[in-house]
Amino acid sequence: MSGKIYEDQKAWTKIIKKYNKPDLLKSLWQMVNSFIPYFGLWILMYYSLSISYWLTLGLSILAAGFLLRIFIIFHDCSHGSFFRSPTANRVVGIIAAGFIYTPYHKWTEDHRIHHQTAGNLDNKGVGDVRTFTVEEYKKFTPFQKTLYKIYRHPIMLFIVGPLLLFLVIFRFPPKDRSLKEKVYTHITTVVLAVAVYLMILWIGVGPFIKIQLPILFVAAGHGAWIFYVQHTYKDVRWERQENWDYATMAFEGSSYLKLPKILQWFTGNVCFHHIHHLSPLIPNYKLEKCYNENPSFHVENPLTFFSALDTLKYRLWDEERKKLISFKEMK
Q: Which residue, among 232, 273, 240, 233, has the nearest Cα to 256 in the 3D structure?
């Protein structure tokens, strides 16, 4: 970081107050330029089936980009940052969540916990990629070590895991959650099942799977990758509870991923993740402005599209060296 402004709460809270109010026209425009292209591409994919399935798959990549934008709308609504009205956030958030097969209330609670515990070694595992410490790993049985290696393999993290998460795991809320959350989660599953059934009646099971599955596959995989590098990178800072501080961990426990402008647009500026963690109330379309106008929020060596690939080797947290390491480095 270029500065230590986050250590002065009055300073950074004064700055973010200028950005943490949504702009109704910008929010509505983002809905228009996200939902409408997604609908249009879905229809084009249906008609492309009669031409070439390779064309359908090509269109699915573009459709997945717009589905990521819909996810960002849902994400902002869950933080209450997309509209000033709590009701508007909830309604639009629930609708957007349906497109990504996600129960709004469960995910909102998971993500709230994530923001309150990110980088906390004593409270990890909810809403994030589970990472064990070296000492924890050494205590595992051989079978547990094998399971963890499978879990942390890129194929599981970015190909198999994301689909399982959105299509299966999200259907089952944790036992310690409120009755309201459990009920809404199951209602979401029923509504999604009915919607899928109606779509299948309309276009057939084969066309539906050929269209929807590739979109979800690409969007979920890329979404998982971006989320992963936001908290798993070379100089990330994690602490035990006694040394954990919200603002410090926002800046030093969350990355700035410098993406090409087109990818930044499709991912809704979520690459400015350190600012987002500092203030989740800033709408996604104001994150870049906040970054550009405040040098104290600048990152000297941001992750890039290619340097982020280096994060794939990280598997464990070494408390002695206070850094992420690979299995090879542990040995």
A: 273
Q: Is 119 left (phi over 0), alpha (psi -120 to 50) or beta?
A: left
Contact 6, 251 (CB under 8 A): yes
Residue 83's identity, in one-letter code, is F
CA distance 317 to 230: 16
- Cβ–Cβ < 8 Å for 130, 151: yes
Residues for the chain: how many in total? 331
The 10s digit of each residue's pLDDT in 216-272 is 999 999 999 999 999 999 989 999 999 888 888 888 899 999 999 999 999 999 999
d(CA 293, CA 298): 9
Prediction pTM value: 0.92
Q: Which two tokens stand for residue 209?
A: 């799977």
Instruction: List alpha helices for the chain, DSSP H.
Output: 9-16, 24-48, 53-79, 86-99, 104-117, 134-138, 142-151, 154-155, 161-167, 179-203, 205-231, 246-252, 261-266, 273-278, 287-293, 327-330
